[in-house]
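Incident review: delayed structure delivery

Summary: a single-chain prediction request sat in the queue longer than the usual turnaround. Root cause was a stuck worker, restarted by the on-call engineer. No data loss occurred. The affected request and its eventual output are reproduced below so the record is complete for anyone auditing the incident later.

Affected input:
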Amino acid sequence: MTLADRLRAALEEGARRDPILIESDLRDPVVGDGGALVQAAVLVAVVDRPDPSVLLTTRNATLRRHAGQVAFPGGRIDPEDRDAIDAALREAQEEIGLPRALVEVIGRADRYRTVTGYEVTPVIGVIPPDLPLLPNDSEVADWFEVPLSFLLEPANHMEQAVEWQGHERRYYEIIWQGRRIWGATAAMIVNLGRRLAYA
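Output delivered after worker restart:
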């Protein structure tokens, strides 16, 4: 079974059993204008290597939101986007110069609600190795790869808790070579790992 086949099997509606997934890191996320969650999408780009890896970015330290954090390429779903897949591919091309034609889209993973009022759809795609990616300096400070096996290993998923605006916020973090992957990004990784464990 190829990497793409295994990922497809994990995302199929008729998976054998449904794992326990993380839907949000707060029971009641802060919502945007009008009480509606802002729709967003990210690209979980799995690099097709003998030991597959996942492409992640470090956000520019000057950004207004989530400055310096590790994240998947992605952002809001714009009115011009056909759907979450279109938005994730557009954002990846804008942020790191990843040509959408080189992404083998596998499908959508489980949506995640953030404390800042976003509902994020992770889009899983497989990309070739060693692409000459060019980060957009205004948004992305750096990009790097982490072995998929490391990210999906439950022993590497550390659950943390913190008080946030009068609520207990629980979140996961994954440490890779001194880089801290946490919050929504880590939660989406944990969810994907739980899906793959049942595929």
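Verification: Helices lie at 3-11, 84-96, 148-152, 183-198.
Action items: add queue-age alerting; document worker restart procedure.
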